[in-house]
Amino acid sequence: MALKASDNPNLAHDFDDEDGPLTFKRYTSSKKKQLHSQLTKSTSPSSNGQPSSNHKGNTVPSAVGNSKASTSLANSNSPKPVLDQKIPIHIKGETKSIKHSTKDSEDEDHNKPFSARLKVNSNNDNKSTPVVVKKSYEDSNDDGAMPLSAKLFRNSNARASCGNYDDSDVKKPISKVQKERQNGSSASNKHEKPSTLLAKRPIDNSNSMHTSVKKLKVSDPAGSIKTEQVSMKCEPKVDDDDDGIPISQRIKKPLTSPDKSSSVNRKLTMSADKSSSMKNSLTKVTKVNKAGKTSFKKQPQKLKKSGKGSDYSKSTKLLPSSGDGQKKWTTLVHNGVIFPPPYQTHGVKILYKGKPVDLTPEQEEVATMYAVMRDTEYMQKDKFKENFWNDWRKLLGRNHVIHNLKDCDFTPIYDWYQSEKEKKKQMTTEEKKALKEEKMKQEEKYMWAIVDGVKEKVGNFRVEPPGLFRGRGEHPKMGKLKRRICPGDIVINIGKDAPIPECPILGERWKEIRHDNTVTWLAYWSDPINPKLFKYVFLAASSSLKGQSDKEKYEKARMLKDYIANIRAAYTKDFTNKDITKQQIAVATYLIDKLALRAGNEKDDDEADTVGCCTLKVENVTREAPNKLKFNFLGKDSIKYENTVEVELPVYNAILKFQKEKRPGDDLFDMLDTSKLNAHLKELMPGLTAKVFRTFNASITLDDMLNKGTKGGDVGENIVVYQKANKQVAIICNHQRSVSKSHSAQMLRLNEKIDGLKAVLKELKTDLDRAKKGKSPLKSSDGKAKRNLNPKALEKKISQTNAKIEKMQRDMKTKDDLKTVALGTSKINYLDPRITVAWCKRHEVPIEKIFNKSLLAKFSWAMDVDPDFRF
DNA sequence: CTCCGGACTTGCAAATACTTTG
DNA sequence: CAAAGTATTTGCAAGTCCGGAG
């Protein structure tokens, strides 16, 4: 039976419940120790503001249990559930969201290079990204020069003051306000049960080892395991003279319109915060600062008690940081990686100067890779062809009949490939299903790893197949052959006691076996295109290990909220610093804060030429008097960033100075690089780096927009509010997507539909007029007679049609607005899921409407956040 | 310091799965 | 039911940041 099951795709069900989206996972041993690490490693992200439940619980996960688990896995690829602690929660699978429909007219675009398209978009279309960023500032002319999140931030201040303080808070020394403000992460603990992790964990672990398949019911409170979190609060202290006046002014100004909804929430939040403060934990003092002026103190944070029940069942709680020095796991069992099948020759010949040419399988394989890319934009790029030719020529050998690429005709292979594709498409669903099952069966054993006794999904267990390198933008290496990876290229990382995965290719062996528990990768090989880089095999996003660090990331970003006022004050002051390095740091930090730019590491010549903040070139920034800066550069993935913003005058002048006497291609911030910048940031807040600003900006924007924008409408309306906020974040972060090939056609079609409805409308009106006069309706266009309706019915129909038309037009507009905006990236990487979950709870929006299955699994650690949680 | 190996997150697009529509 | 769309998943490239060696 077991065997049978494992062969069967259905078998997967066994796993299914286990890795269902909302699950309970065990706590990692390493997590328990973090206290220690926090104390030791002040800079570690996790170490700060992390919930920690350390005290007493140092129970070590017993190796015994783990080894047992591993054994079972090793001995039988049995899919048998190894994890017991995961609690499945029923989730409605359908995560549907909103859709837009439409079409429009701009087809030619897809033939252009991506960058070109973007350019077109941004130039012609005000709705598109770059410009939009600008839009975000429009609503607040008064503070156009204010950092992106400043406006939001002030709101949070406002919120804070609703609770216990009056507006004057804002004027209080920042440190005071901050001190009074509770640290957020505690909110999420509200729901937790008293039982602490510490106490529980060991038990759970052992359970997992011995009891194998028990699943806890979500609904069973007793069964659910809660974790407590303790977050620490940071209380930055600032030197009085350091307090930038400008900043405080900016912050004050804002209080303009506190949103009602937020004030209500605020109260809840505050009280939650209060209650939370009680158990505490560690106090840490970090001394920071330049000039020895500022010192930040951390305060203990507390656990929260769980409040009223939420509609969501509780799920996993992650432990605080992954401290323990460096230790990421105690036991690790997995089956290695799976290789792509060997090349199957097809024997289709290419033509050289019109004549068929014989190729060896190796030569044919590479020729096929090329042939198959005929319809891509790479074929228009000389660099791609050149690189391909250079690598392929090597395979062809010295005196091969083929002497140049130009005379090669790959059409036969291309056609063969197309027909193969067609064949596949024509297969019956049955056949397809069978094929899929077969594949599943082969891969199933590689899909899972057992980490500290808990079964976790592996992210990418498939070794990358050979192919032609598809670098983005103008990558110097595009088209190069990415050779096949063999076991001899692969380094495996696995627990000491775990069986070493059998090498799947006969007669070969792994390059190396390691037992390094300070890292999370299960395997890696070096990138054949750039041997300096590695390709890693990690656990999936839904794993506890990933969830852990995800949470730490958001906690760090939240911590920034407490420091941001001081940081702004500090850099504002330095806008005019005589020390040019400091001045550049100040301006760069300002840009990162205001525009959510990436840090901008240096790049090699053999990479696409893109920039981030520190690597901006003089030519990327154009001044527009009196105080605007126009940015235009290619950022990550060669995505164009185009944005014109108003900046504070000192910034404008500083840029002027940095540009002076430099050539267009020179570095704008010539005294700066990311390590200097980050080193500086770290002095301002422990663990602070440039990327934290992006997370911070994104999440606080979401939090703010949700709370301001939600008016208590129905679910549908609320979802629109969410999407709007999501879109705003995507715009801030410049998350773009290429316009789909069929976009214009879709818009066109929608227009036709609307026109059709309009025609109907007209006809209805005519009928109405006639009906009022007692005449029967005219015949419809197809000549048939229509039913004779009374005026009332006709009026109703008219208004219905009108509504339909309006809705369609709205949808169309939305669709067009979003055609170049990618919402997914921010959802996955930048928006603290607790904001979303808490908001959903508050407004009774089913979380499945916002998060799909993967997201639910990835964010399982955030599911039981307190409804009052605010970023 | 700087350089660079190393590890991990972020990001877009292609492939695939699933839904709606005609 | 196929075509048309949309949503989700997968693939893998491209960033960030850290820390150790020189």
UniProtKB/TrEMBL annotation:
GO cellular component, one term: chromosome
Function: Releases the supercoiling and torsional tension of DNA introduced during the DNA replication and transcription by transiently cleaving and rejoining one strand of the DNA duplex. Introduces a single-strand break via transesterification at the specific target site 5'-[CT]CCTTp site in duplex DNA. The scissile phosphodiester is attacked by the catalytic tyrosine of the enzyme, resulting in the formation of a DNA-(3'-phosphotyrosyl)-enzyme intermediate and the expulsion of a 5'-OH DNA strand. The free DNA strand then undergoes passage around the unbroken strand thus removing DNA supercoils.
Every DNA topoisomerase I eukaryotic-type domain range: 468-844
Reactions mediated catalytically: ATP-independent breakage of single-stranded DNA, followed by passage and rejoining
Chain positions covered by the region annotation Disordered: 1-325, 771-793
Annotated Low complexity bias: 42-54
Subcellular location: Nucleus
Annotated EC: 5.6.2.1
InterPro entries: DNA_brk_join_enz, DNA_topo_DNA_db_N_dom1, DNA_topo_DNA_db_N_dom2, TopoI, TopoI_C_dom, TopoI_cat_a-hlx-sub_euk, TopoI_cat_a/b-sub_euk, TopoI_cat_euk
Name of the molecule in the record: DNA topoisomerase I
Pfam families, A to Z: Topo_C_assoc, Topoisom_I, Topoisom_I_N
Gene Ontology terms: biological process: chromosome segregation; DNA replication; DNA topological change
Start-end of Basic residues biased regions: 295-307
Biased composition (Polar residues): 55-79, 120-129, 258-286
PROSITE patterns: TOPO_IB_1 (PS00176), TOPO_IB_2 (PS52038)
Enzyme class, UniProt record, top EC level: isomerase
Sample GO molecular function, one term: DNA binding
Keyword field: Coiled coil, DNA-binding, Isomerase, Nucleus, Phosphoprotein, Topoisomerase
Active site: 830
Residue runs in coiled coils: 417-445
Residue ranges, compositional bias (Basic and acidic residues): 91-112, 168-182
Domain of life: Eukaryota
SMART domains for this protein: TOPEUc
Principal localisation: nucleus
Sequence similarity: Belongs to the type IB topoisomerase family.
Organism: Lupinus albus (White lupine)
